[in-house]
């Protein structure tokens, strides 16, 4: 089963890290993701740009939509990135999140199962959607 492991951390803390600390954390995370890739379990991984680069589109009852600079909500921790991984079950996903947490002290990891939603897109049997994962 595919899981998204969402990484939350204080953006202020992460952005204040010296370059050396950031590089160290990224090296440690890369060790975890390299092992997942070798096992054929790693899908897309993304590090999101700061929330100051975000744009939010919301419904506005007076207009069709409202476009706002910045994040949707002010929170203590922000979504800073995600990992898509293939795991046998939730226990394996939790074990992977623990490895990521050891590599990125202070981060919080949220695990969510992924369901495919592809309106108008047909995925053919045998097509590889990520390394090691085929639709049957």
Question: How would you summarize the topology of this molecule?
Answer:
Blueprint: E1 2-9, H1 11-16, H2 19-38, E2 42-47, E3 55-60, E4 63-69, E5 78-86, H3 90-103, E6 108-113, E7 128-130, E8 133-134
Protein model, in words:
The protein is an alpha+beta fold and 136 residues long. 29% of the residues lie in helices and 35% in strands. The chain has a domain at 2-48 and 77-116: Alpha-Beta Plaits (2-Layer Sandwich). The strands form three sheets. The protein has a four-stranded antiparallel β-sheet with strand order 2-5-1-6. A two-stranded antiparallel sheet has the order 3-4. Strands 7-8 form a two-stranded antiparallel sheet. A hairpin with a 2-residue loop joins strand 3 (55-60) and strand 4 (63-69). The two termini are 13 Å apart. The model has no long low-confidence stretch (mean pLDDT 85).
Features:
four-stranded antiparallel sheet; 136 residues; alpha+beta; two-stranded antiparallel ribbon; Alpha-Beta Plaits
